[in-house]
Amino acid sequence: MKSITAADPVASVAIRGAATGFYRIKPLSANVCQLTYVVQSQLGGSIPLALLNLRVRNNLDDIYVVLDKFMRDGAKVDEELRAVFPVPLKLADLDNDQNELFGMGKKLVAKGFSGK
Q1: How many Å apart are CA 95 and CA 38, to the nearest integer?
Q2: pTM
């Protein structure tokens, strides 16, 4: 891909656009994180779909570079996450009010209530 400057004669027919983005890294445990990549493009004029798809592929290539560098074995990651996430409560650990509320929720779900 060629970079165009204002002095280039091609620039008179070029469309200027801008893209901004960021990576959000959320720690899940000491050695595990969740990576979210957000990018937004502001394109001026009419851009052919083929060029737009090329840009999207380039953004995805950036993601794969990060994945290739930092991806770890899933079994090790699962083990680390299980070590830091709280153990779910057992029904025996609930008091009477909590048990009653849990029972009411089970009845609603059994009747088809989804909460949506």
Answers
A1: 44
A2: 0.49
